[in-house]
Every structure is written in structure tokens, then in C-alpha cells.
Design brief:
Layout (H helix, E strand, L loop, with lengths): L1 H14 L12 E9 L9 E6 L5 E5 L5 E7 L2 E8 L6 E8 L4 E8 L23 E4 L1 H6 L7 H5 L5 E3 L7 E3 L7 E5 L2 E2 L4 E2 L4 E2 L6 E7 L13 E7 L9 E6 L3 E9 L7 E9 L1 H5 L6 E17 L2 E20 L2 E24 L4 E22 L16 E25 L2 E22 L20 E20 L4 E12 L4 E13 L4 E12 L3 H4 L11 H4 L4 E15 L2 E20 L2 H8 L18 E22 L8 E16 L2 E4 L6 E10 L4 E10 L3 E2 L4 E4 L1 E5 L6 E5 L9 E4 L9 E2 L3 E10 L8 E8 L9 E7 L8 E7 L5 E9 L1
Length: about 850
């Protein structure tokens, strides 16, 4: 089903498309004032900003009026410390500065009690210990060639990360499945971070302060996923003026943003943005159909209740719809009819503030809902069934599929950061999720017997024809992470996480440990390891390639999946703006949830439905098939080496920026009595993303990606295709050999049993994207224009290999051939951006 939708979308975006362009990442500014408890200004206080990602520091002192300014800060996440002898320091442990942003703080220094520690240094604000952390500036998302404002397409260029296919935004991280990745936006778990069936993302980079990807060994404050965490921090509206606005067109959509300060409320602001696809408005003038489209609205209000205390109210609503029919002019019997609707809604309230001189609090209460309805009907000749005659030997496949699913998540997340001393920082908290999930579908017409794995989400033969499953459950977690600065060059972070799942009725305890060693002023060694768990749940299956029926949870006795991580990296700053890093990783998985094999009784019952003559009995699949009934029977491992180099802009004169990454990796799964390559085992991957400023007016950006093909299951031969017909006595149905109108047998590919899983390998993937940006001299940087080409060389990549049959004049049956499918063609586009 989805391949048809993706083919339609790929064709539509070939017609029209535009996206953003932008200048080099601008530096950020932090300003404010330092006061004591009475409100009087504090002169001569030291204000230290420490970057989380690399521990780079910037320092200044307050003037006679208590005011301070830190300019030229690189965009990213910082910890802020203000101190003066004899007073307790003020600490803001986590603040995000976006490109070109100006943030204002009021820092209050208090008189210490008898037992309180007076001094604190910048060492308290140690960088994240996890080796596998990479921060992505929102302007990079808008600047990378081929990204189309989609952060997930930028993440595909980072070490250890790859797209599951050329079209999709879903990611595989170090060989893991897309369901093993967690996305958190402003403390809220986002279960469906995609739009337009994965073509674009739910995040508008115009409203984001920072993206941070952690590909392994993440802190104890995150859990219930095995592979990676994407943290998205939205920015508040600008309070620099009464109102400001931006308008832009992207490859798939246009967006408008307005923001400003709230009148009469010091330090408070508002922001509203809206996006909508536009290609459908153009194409629908040509075809009579409601083509795939989406629109969303996002709003945020930030209220400064008093210095150091802020209330944020956030809301998002998104709608997607399709109602289209496509007929084949060359074959009047073929058609595809698609009707779909998707709703995504989010409301959240966050309170941040200090609780006394040493505790920083962040509390988030959220409500999230995702609902999808897809009604798919088609009569098509798929190429995977035919008789052996030169023409007319391919029967129509009748596909009828109705799916409805929903996820509602009411959550609370509480985070506390405690300043326990000049070299000691404690992070602790808890999260609670009240989940209500449901999956319903009805499959009619021909079943998809060509899927090797019966639990495949593409209509595998092992999933039920009729499903109505609802699961109301609770899961929660609590954590503590203890950051210690043992010496000037050594920092450690032991952590412990507790997770409880109502689906498994199980509590897991996950110890974690990370360390940072500064070997020299420019060289840093990082290590991390520990246990990571993931509970079963329908909310994870939204991104999975397989469906597992969780209805009878009491009888299944499922347990949480587990992964042990071990990581080691060495990083060196060669000169300002240039960083290189090498990292090795090893992951061991156990208790992986997979579809179990049929029992002997189930095999016997399935085989009994075949009514084939003795001469064709060999064509009946008698080996146990994978079902949609889940079990914890899978294990696996993944290991590899990653190389990464980045060059950032350090001044307006910087002409070349970008990064390059290379990954050598291997991922294996053990299940069904054998060890085989994991679905997303990628042995080699190379990515280069760069921008070169030819002049003040013109910039050239390129992105190149090449990687080994993923494993796939090849066809081993042919067997006779079955068709379901009523039994003569009316007692049910049976499967008989399918024949064409001339009486010839109809054949279909034979993929063998589980011993054939992932024994083939897709061709090498390679793609070059390019963009040229022009900024007119007369526009004062308000106008930007660009020309871009995705897949500039029009390479025929293969996201999958479709097995088709063709006439064979030298045999009584057709011959097999493999056809490349699922690639993005050459997509040229032009774009414009204007800032009011």
C-alpha cells in the first residue's frame, strides 16, 4: 500500500518544489543582570557560560548596574553560572541559544547559610558524558542540500545513522529498527514525528532552538528505547520587538511564522506558525482528486512569572488527508483508490524555575493524540504473478485494506537539577504515561503471499484478516544521574533508571555509567555503557516494519527488550571550528520481541486448507511460517567504528563549513534457530555535507551519501500461486491452484523458509544533492533565492528489489527478474525566503 502512495508523492514533488536558504549560522548573545535577594544590582560578579557539547567557556563580569553581555556565543546548549565571593552562586544548568538568538536572564545571588558551600566553578557545568552526542543547529537543517527542511534527512548524514529507504524519514541507528528510536520535544514524547507518509517531518526548524541526537549510551533521564534519542528544544518567541514575521516555501510545503513580546509583561513572548502543502493545490487543478496534503498550526506563549520562573504553554494541531483515484490509461482494469486521514494534536504546559539557591525544576504536563485512518482499494497487476504466455498472462490482484489506529498519551515529566557542590551536580526525576492505544483493520481480497516474513506490516500472510485490538496501559520511569568532577580532567556520571510497564507487568532496573577524560586541552576521551530497555507497546509499532498482536497480553507473558551498550570515543579539536572524532561501539540485544513460528498443529491446519492435486503438492509451503503472535525469542548484536569530522563557522569570513562521516558496522539477529544479518545491517556508509561561500552573494551547498545495501530476502524459485474459493459443501474456503483464462497455471515467487531470511544484499546506494543560494545585495539579507537538485545524477537507487515474472519461451513456467523500486528521481526545485 505505502509504495503506491510514495510513488504518487514522488511524482507530485517532481512538478513543483521550493525550500529555504539561509546564511552562515549566526552567533548568539546572552545578556541580563545580576541582583541580590533584595533586588539590588551586584557588580563584579563573574558570569560563566559553558557549552554542553564541548565544554568551551565564555566569561564576563557584571558592571556597576549589575548588567552583563556575552556576545559571539556559538549556537547550542549551555550551563550558566554567576558567582561572587561571599554569595551563593546562581546556576541555570540548561539553556539553549539558537543561531542569532538574544536571550536575557536575571541571576539572583543569595547569602549562604552556615552549612552551605560558597564557591562554585565552571567545572560544575560539565559537558554531556555520552560519546554519541551530536548537536544540530536548526539553520543547518535549513541549509543542507537535499534536506528540504526535514531534520531526519540531515540526521541521515551523521555517523551510524541511515534512512530505512530513499523516500522515508524513518531512521536506523547502528543497525537497529526505527521503532527503537525515541523522539522528545520539550519534554514530550512524540510518537509520530513524520508527515506525508514519511516524506517530511513534524518539526518546523524556524521554531526550534536545537536538535540533539544521541546514538547510544544516553543518560538515565531517557529510557524505554534501545537505540537512540532525538531531543528537540523549541524556542520562545522573540521579545526584541512587538512583532516579527518570516515566510518561506519548502520542497513540500510553505510556512508563515509570527512572533513578538507580550505587551506589559517583561520577558514574556508569543509565537505562532502555520504550514501547509502547496503542490496539491497546483496539481488538483489538473486532476480531479484530493491529493496527499497536510496542514499544521503551532502556538507558544512564554510567561515570565518572576525572575527565574517561567511558564510555557504550547499547542500543536496537524491534519493530513488524501482522497484520490488513479487509473491506468494503458489498462482500463487497473486502478488505485486511496482515502486517508491523520490527526496529530498536542497540548503541553511547562513550568521552569529555581527552588531555593541550589535546585532547578522543570515540570511538564502534556496531552498527545495521534489517529490514522487508511482505506485502500486497488486492482493492479503487481508483476509477481503470471502464467507463462507472451501476453495477457498476468492476473489482477484485488487489494482491499482498511486500517484505523490511535495513540493517546497523557504524560507528566518532572526533572530536578540539584547543585550539590562546586564539583557535583545531581539530575533526578520521573515520568508517567497513561496510554490508550487501538489497532483495527480489515483485509479483504488477495493476501500478500510474497512477503517472506508473515508478520510484515505490508500485509504479511501471518497477520489476521480482521483485527480489533485496544490496549489501555500505564508505563513510567524514574532516574538519577550523578555528575562528579573528580579532577580538572576527569568527570564521571553514574546513573540508575527504573522503568515500569503495565503491558509486561514488569519493573526493570538499568545501571549506566559515563566518563570524560581530558587528555590534553584539545583531546578528550569519552566512554559510556549500561543497560537499556524497551517495553512492548502499540505506540512503538507506529514506526515498526512488522505488526505484532498485543491483544492477549496476559497469556503472552512478554518481557521488556534489553540492550547492553559499550562505547568509547576520542575527540580532538585541531583548530578553532575544526573537530575530528573516532568512536567504537558494541551492543548486545536479548529478549527481542519477534513474531513466533507456527506450531506443528498450526502448520497442519494451514496446509489442510490447500486443495492441490498430487502433482502440485510440492508447491504447498509446509515449513513453519512467522506469525503475528509476539515472543521474546530474539537476540542480536551490533558493533562498529565511526569516524566524524566537522568544520564550523567561527567568523563572518568563514567560507567553508560542513561535516563528513564514515561508518564501518555490522548488525546481526539470532532467531528461528539461526543467526542472520539484521534488517538494517549496513557494512559501510559515507556522508559528506558542506557549504562553500563563493562570495557574499552566492553560496554552494552539496550533500553526498553512499552506503552498502541493506539485506533482503531473495526469491529461490517459483511455486504455483493459490487462490481462495468456497468449498463445494459450503463449509468454508479452500486454496486451489490459480489458472489463467486459457487454463495455464499462474506462478508466483517462492521465498523459502526462515533459513532464507536476509541472505541477499541490495545494490550500493549513492546520491548527490546540490543547492546554489543567492542573496541580493539590495535586500539587506531579507530576501534569499535558491536553485536545488535532489539526486542530481538521477542515479537509479534501489530501496528494495521487487521480484517480477516474465515470459520464458524455453520453459513451462516464467523466469524471475528483480526490479529496482522505491527511489527518489531527480527533483529540481527553486525557492524563496523572506523575512519581514
Amino acid at each position: 500500500m505505502l509504495p503506491y502512495l510514495r510513488a504518487v508523492l514522488a511524482g507530485l514533488v517532481c512538478l513543483v518544489g521550493a525550500g529555504p536558504v539561509l546564511a552562515q549560522p549566526a552567533s548568539a548573545t546572552l545578556s541580563g543582570e545580576v541582583r541580590d535577594e533584595s533586588g539590588a544590582p551586584v557588580a563584579g560578579a563573574a558570569i560563566i557560560a559553558t557549552a554542553t557539547v564541548d565544554a568551551a567557556t565564555a566569561e564576563t563580569r557584571s558592571d556597576a548596574a549589575g548588567r552583563f553581555v556575552l556576545e559571539g556565543l556559538a549556537p547550542g546548549r549551555y550551563a550558566i553560572v554567576a558567582e561572587r565571593q561571599g554569595l551563593l552562586p546562581a546556576v541555570v544548568p540548561d539553556i539553549v541559544l539558537g543561531p542569532g538568538a538574544t536571550r536575557a536572564l536575571t541571576l539572583v545571588l543569595r547569602v549562604p547559610g552556615i552549612s552551605e558551600i560558597v564557591s562554585v566553578g565552571a567545572a560544575q557545568a560539565a559537558p554531556e558524558a555520552s560519546p554519541s552526542t551530536i548537536a544540530i543547529a536548526p539553520r543547518a537543517v535549513m541549509n543542507v542540500a537535499g534536506a528540504a527542511d526535514n531534520v531526519f534527512r540531515v540526521l541521515q548524514t551523521l555517523p551510524g545513522v541511515a534512512a530505512v529507504n530513499d523516500f522515508d524519514s524513518r531512521l536506523t541507528v547502528r543497525g537497529g529498527g526505527p521503532d527503537q528510536n525515541l523522539t522528545v520535544m520539550d519534554g514530550v514524547e512524540i510518537h509520530n514525528p513524520y508527515r506525508l507518509f514519511g516524506l517530511t517531518s513534524a518539526f518546523n526548524p524556524e521554531t526550534v532552538d536545537a536538535f540533539e541526537l544521541i546514538t547510544g549510551g544516553f543518560s538515565a533521564k531517557y529510557g524505554d528505547r534501545l537505540s537512540s534519542i532525538l531531543v528537540v528544544d523549541n524556542r520562545p518567541g522573540s521579545s526584541a520587538g512587538a512583532i516579527g514575521a518570516t515566510a518561506a516555501l519548502g520542497l513540500t510545503d510553505g510556512n508563515v511564522l509570527a512572533e513578538g513580546r507580550l505587551p506589559g509583561l517583561h520577558g514574556s513572548s508569543w509565537l505562532v506558525t502555520a504550514r501547509r502543502t502547496y503542490y496539491d493545490l497546483i496539481a488538483e487543478q489538473i486532476v480531479d482528486a484530493d491529493l496527499p496534503s497536510f496542514a499544521d498550526v503551532q502556538a507558544r506563549v512564554d510567561l515570565q512569572l518572576r525572575p527565574g520562573h517561567r511558564l510555557t504553554i504550547f499547542g500543536l494541531g496537524s491534519r493530513e488527508s488524501t482522497d484520490a483515484r488513479f487509473d491506468d490509461d494503458g489498462d482500463p482494469d487497473e486502478f488505485v483508490d486511496i482515502e486517508s486521514s491523520t490527526w496529530n494534536d498536542l497540548a503541553a504546559i511547562t513550568y521552569t524555575g529555581t527552588l531555593g539557591p541550589r535546585v532547578y525544576n522543570r515540570t511538564t504536563v502534556s496531552w498527545y493524540r495521534n489517529r490514522e485512518v487508511i482505506d485502500f482499494s486497488a486492482d493492479v497487476r503487481t508483476g509477481s504473478r503470471r502464467s507463462n504466455r507472451p501476453d495477457g498472462g498476468e492476473p489482477l490482484a484485488e487489494i482491499r485494506f482498511l486500517r484505523q489506529l490511535g495513540v493517546r498519551d497523557v504524560a507528566v515529566r518532572q526533572e530536578l537539577t540539584i547543585n550539590a557542590g562546586s564539583r557535583h551536580l545531581i539530575e533526578t526525576g520521573f515520568e508517567s504515561h497513561s496510554l490508550d492505544t487501538d489497532w483495527r483493520w480489515r483485509i479483504e481480497g488477495d493476501r500478500n503471499f510474497t512477503e517472506p516474513n508473515g508478520s510484515s506490516g505490508q500485509g504479511g500472510a501471518g497477520i489476521p484478516s480482521l483485527l480489533d485490538s485496544r490496549q489501555a496501559s500505564w508505563r513510567g520511569g524514574a532516574w538519577i544521574a550523578d555528575r562528579w568532577t573528580l579532577t580538572e580532567r576527569l568527570r564521571v556520571e553514574p546513573g540508575l533508571r527504573f522503568d515500569r510497564s503495565g503491558v509486561t507487568d514488569e519493573t526493570t532496573v538499568a545501571p549506566r555509567l559515563a566518563a570524560v577524560i581530558d587528555l590534553t586541552d584539545r583531546t578528550r576521551l569519552r566512554a559510556a555503557g549500561g543497560l537499556f530497555t524497551q517495553s512492548p507497546g502499540y505506540e512503538k509499532l507506529l514506526q515498526s516494519d512488522y505488526f505484532l498482536d498485543l491483544t492477549p497480553t496476559d497469556s503472552l507473558r512478554l518481557r521488556s527488550e534489553r540492550a547492553w551498550h559499550a562505547l568509547l570515543s576520542i575527540e580532538r579539536r585541531l583548530e578553532p571550528g575544526i573537530t575530528v572524532r573516532a568512536e567504537g561501539y558494541y551492543k548486545h540485544f536479548d529478549r527481542l520481541v519477534v513474531g513466533r513460528l507456527e506450531t506443528p498443529a498450526e502448520v497442519e491446519a494451514r496446509v489442510a486448507t490447500y486443495d492441490f492435486p498430487d502433482g502440485l503438492a510440492w508447491s504447498i509451503p509446509r515449513a513453519p511460517q512467522v506469525t503475528s503472535i509476539p515472543s521474546n525469542d530474539g537476540t542480536g548484536r551490533a558493533y562498529g567504528l565511526e569516524l566524524y569530522a566537522a568544520k564550523q563557522a567561527t567568523s563572518p569570513e568563514t567560507t567553508l563549513t560542513g561535516w563528513a562521516s564514515y561508518t564501518l558496522g555490522r548488525a546481526e539477529t539470532t532467531a528461528y534457530g539461526r543467526t542472520f544479518a539484521a534488517d538494517y545491517d549496513c557494512r559501510h556508509a559515507l556522508s559528506v555535507a558542506g557549504a562553500y561561500r563563493l562570495s557574499r552573494l552566492v553560496e554552494l551547498s552539496t550533500t553526498f551519501r553512499a552506503q552498502s545495501g541493506f539485506p533482503y530476502t531473495p526469491a529461490l524459485g517459483l511455486r504455483v500461486s493459490p487462490v481462495e474459493v468456497p468449498r463445494p459443501d459450503g463449509s468454508g474456503t479452500r486454496l486451489v491452484p490459480l489458472v489463467d483464462e486459457t487454463g495455464l497455471l499462474v506462478w508466483t515467487p517462492d521465498y523459502g523458509d526462515t533459513s532464507n531470511f536476509n541472505t541477499g544484499r541490495l545494490p550500493v546506494f549513492a546520491r548527490l544533492d546540490m543547492r546554489v543560494t543567492f542573496r541580493p545585495r539590495w535586500s539587506n539579507d531579507r530576501w534569499q533565492f535558491y536553485v536545488e537538485a535532489i539526486n542530481l545524477l538521477n542515479r537509479d537507487n534501489a530501496s528494495s528489489l521487487s521480484t517480477e515474472l516474465e515470459f520464458n519461451p524455453d520453459s513451462d513456467r516464467p523466469r524471475l527478474k528483480e526490479v529496482r523500486t522505491g527511489r527518489l528521481p531527480l527533483l529540481p526545485s527553486v525557492g524563496i525566503r523572506y523575512r519581514f
